Amino acid sequence: MYHRWSWITFIHWRYPPSMLQPMLPPGLTVETFDGSAWVGLTPFLMQGVRTPALPAVPWLSSFPETNLRTYVQDRRGRRGIWFLSLDAARLPAVLAARAGYRLPYYWSNMAVRIDGDQVAYRCARRWPGPRRLRCDADVRLGPQLSEAEHDELAHFLTARYRLFTVIAGRLAAAEAEHPEWPLRRGELLRLDQDLLTGAGLPTPASEPLLHASVGVPVRVGMWHPLDRP
Predict the structure, then answer these.
(1) Tell me: the pLDDT tens digits for 20-47?
(2) Rounded (5°) CA angle 202-110-15
(3) Residue 52: how many CB atoms within 10 A of its CB?
């Protein structure tokens, strides 16, 4: 699949690794930074979604999405993303992703509104349940990160080029290709969400760490089964 992830905000919290590990399938281990697991809430605007052989369809190819994710590695040390949930505004896209990519997608009422350097994200889950889970976030985008701010932690949280899933009881991965994120500072003006508790996580005990970007083009390949141990 080809698409562009636009107007994305990375909102991250620390969690104990022991809290995330039971949520993972056999073969994956929580990847940590400074001794902590990290959970990311990433609202953004998906644009230009298409397969290699077909053009983008205007209504179907652009829609908001909000992902809840953590960071993992397999038995061979290959790093990637494990999704706890993915909310999207187009039901056909949700059904296709559930069937073809075996990812926990949910159909939601969503919107992304851009006003200068401010972005308002709205998300209210519709199907499948539990319904009424939501994520409303207002973010102000700041200047580009300085070289010092574009540190190892920013790289750890955003430079991810592999997705993991389970297909027919077997661990699988898909590779993602995109340029390095042009990261900016982000200021969280408002956040009203219960996607974390809806996924089985406790309410975060600390303030989140934010990064933002106007976006990059992305190509995600097909799933391929991983080698058995």
Answers:
(1) 999 999 999 999 999 999 999 999 999 9
(2) 20
(3) 7
By C-alpha distance, which of 88, 124, 130 is closest to 105?
88
* pLDDT over 70, % of the chain: 95
The reported pLDDT for the residue numbered 60 is 62
Q: In sequence order, what DSSP letters do the residues of 83-135 get, joined into one string?
A: EEEEEES-HHHHHHHHHHS---EEEEEEEEEEETTEEEEEEEEEESSSTT-BE
The mean pLDDT of the chain is 92
For residues 90 and 105, the answer to whether their CB atoms sit within 8 Å is no
* Longest CA–CA separation in the chain, Å: 50
Nearest C-alpha neighbor of 49 from the set 92, 84, 103: 92
Is the CB of residue 86 less than 8 Å from the CB of residue 95? Answer: no
What letter represents residue 49's amino acid?
V
- Reading the block at residue 74, the tokens are 């397999």
pLDDT greater than 60 at residue 59: no
Q: Are strands 2-15 and 28-30 parallel, antiparallel or unpaired?
A: unpaired
Q: Encode pLDDT of 85-105 as tens digits.
A: 999 999 988 998 888 778 999
Strand (E) or helix (H) holding 70: strand 63-74
Exposed, middle or buried, 222 (CB in 10 Å: 0-12/13-18/19+)? Answer: exposed
Using alpha carbons, select from 197, 3, 226 the residue that is nearest to residue 85: 197
Q: Which of 101, 114, 110, 96 is nearest to 65 (CA)?
A: 110
Mean pLDDT score, 183-187? 97
